[in-house]
Amino acid sequence: MVVDDHPMWRDAVARDLEKAGFDIVATAGDGPQAVRRARATAPDVLVLDLNLPGLPGVQVCKEVLAERSEVRVLVLSASGEHADVLEAVKSGATGYLVKSASTDELIEAVRRTAVGDAVFTPGLAGLVLGEYRRLATEPPPATPDEPAAPQLTERETEVLRLVAKGLSYKQIAERLVISHRTVQNHVQNTLGKLQLHNRVELVRYAIERGLDETD
């Protein structure tokens, strides 16, 4: 599903993705329409502009994911401002691409988003990871009754550590000599155990526990 308030841009993105073999289940030109159509069509991937009339893109992201946490959101925005990127990620977006990206970069980003990779315009991934590291150094709120952390298997922990280092599923599969599908299964199992929604949240969890610093 493609959401943008500029009809020519929206149609061009939808057309390019269709030519690349994706099924476009819906398009929308404003925030409320986007939420309604996402609810009706249940897209796998939502390509979302931030600057929308009626309802901001970050709020659209929150509302869609509140109902369907399995939807992967790729923000496609004219803004590369750090505050916009961080706000989008905190609202649940899986990736962030600026509109200066080429058609090939967009198609590749949608493909990777569809399989759960966190995709960012070059330079922005470091920003997001840096922000999560900063948050991880802040003392956690006092929760004396918090239940013990779920137990991950040795393989799940190994996959999580490589996710935190920024490796793609394909790279992880090659490193561990397992299939791409097996990596996806481990990530999905880990998300379920930790009650997280996407790869970005998983990276933050791993960084908070220092898994990205291990060899």
DSSP strand content: 5-15%
Helix fraction by DSSP (H/I, runs of at least 4): 40-55%
Q: Largest sheet at a glance?
A: 5 strands, parallel
User: How many H/I helices?
Assistant: 10
Distance between the termini: 39 Å
- What's the count of strands? 5
Q: Could you name the ranges where pLDDT drops below 50 across 5 or more consecutive residues?
A: none
Rg, alpha carbons = 17 Å
Shape call: globular
Nutshell version of this structure?
This protein has helices at 7-19, 31-41, 57-67, 82-90, 103-114, 124-137, 154-164, 169-176, 180-194, 199-208, and strands spanning 2-3, 27-28, 45-48, 72-77, 95-98.
What does this structure look like?
The chain is of the alpha/beta class. It has helices at residues 7-19, 31-41, 57-67, 82-90, 103-114, 124-137, 154-164, 169-176, 180-194, 199-208; strands at residues 2-3, 27-28, 45-48, 72-77, 95-98. The chain has a five-stranded parallel beta sheet with strand order 2-1-3-4-5, with helices on both faces. Helix 4 (82-90) links the parallel strand 4 and strand 5. The model has no long low-confidence stretch (mean pLDDT 84).
